[in-house]
Specification:
By secondary structure, the chain is an alpha/beta fold. It is 37% helix and 19% strand. It contains 17 helices and 19 strands. The strands form four sheets. Strands 12, 13, 14, 15, 16, 17, 18 and 19 form an eight-stranded mixed β-sheet that branches. A seven-stranded mixed β-sheet has the order 1-4-5-6-7-9-11, with helices on both faces. A two-stranded antiparallel sheet has the order 2-3. It starts with a helix and ends in a 17-residue tail after the last helix.
Length: 472
Amino acid sequence: MSGSMLEKLSAAKAQLSAGDARKRLELLFDEGSFVELDSFVKAAEGAAGVLTGYGTVEGSPVYAFSQNSDDLGGGMGRAQMAKLTKVYDLALKTGCPVVGIYDSKGARLEEGADALAAYGDLMKTVSRLSGVVPQVAVVAGPCAGAAALAACNADLVIMSEEGELFLTPPFVAKAKGETVEGAGTAGNAARAGVVHLVAKNDGEAIAQARKILSLLPANNLAVAPIFEWEEQPGAGLNDMGEGTQKADGAVVLDTLADAGSAIELQPEFGCGVVTKLATLAGNVCGMAATTGAPLTADDSNKLARFVQFCDAFQLPVVTLVNTPGFAPSSKSETQGAVREAAKLCAVYGEATTPKVSVIIGEAIGPAYIALAGKASAADLVFAWPSAVISPLEPAAAVALLKEDTITPEHTRAQAEADYRANEASAFTVAAAGYIDNVIEPAATRQVLASALDLLSSKRESKLPKKHGNLPL
């Protein structure tokens, strides 16, 4: 190689190593595996503002890009989009995941309509690969406007506390007299359900991305990896079978998942539901649990989005059910509870991935239909002996159906207890064929492991159609 060529190569590497973009990619990929693509592509004003390439994460191939706000703000333009297009095209051809590390101050305004077209191409490309290969977005710095739309279209969004994520810049809103504490921050994004995980810094965010990628299949036609596993210490559930009040789905879920395997998603949003990626007896699955409270619009939205993601990549879904139903309040209705509940029903019914539900407490009315109904959602349904399954809450059912049985000798409380023990009993519903088995709490993990093994070869064809219409 000539001296001038060596000088050019050295200068290019020096320029592109500015900022944190390269460091972030080196943290993402296994040591020494990162191979850069299009390192000499430049915009008219200088560097393209993004590094792209591929490597391995825990030994599996992954494509990635990392924007660099130190290069003219990391602005999106023709050159940057050309580099991103190549990464996405290669990911599509090879069936490999894509990680996008966002750190850009916006579009290259000097490129005018070309910059808008570049963002349009990015959003179209992200949407085209949705459900084909896993996409993980890491918000490490500024991510605004159209870039925020592209990032939030990824399957999973991880945000550093040092990042910013918004459609409208907070200073613009403030100029219009609108001020919201924490606008654009990771904390606000977490509470709004915009991001799945929050990390203290970009290094921690990238470490979380690595762990998530290690659990996921390479694409929608590949199988998820199988891991060596250990049970949680003290994994017995015998002390949780004495009544619905003790059946906290979040606690039970933690006990069922393999030790150290669970990653909770959106912990600050829709807090009536807990959703986690985890392994159970070494098999990757989505695990969801209701916590005993009525389901709000946010709860339904969170759970529907989680099940749809699992279904896209054929990850089995385990649902632990304990809820008195959808929140019965005017405030909940005005927040779109019916729309989100309908969406939840549609997603569960449409999903063809293996679905196993365990009723560990109450399963009342439409919530039972959506989350544990064999007729509409689940492949297998189990229940604990203390479970209560009813079209209405027992108090309401007694008021409507058993009012004439209330006497001084047979109080309302006794009537409700009788209703729970008889008409709404897990054994009564199982006798009608709507529950596959009534199991002891201590047997739950073993039963679920067996069920997932049985359903691993599940094949279910959908009717020929372009797509279903969710109640959006």
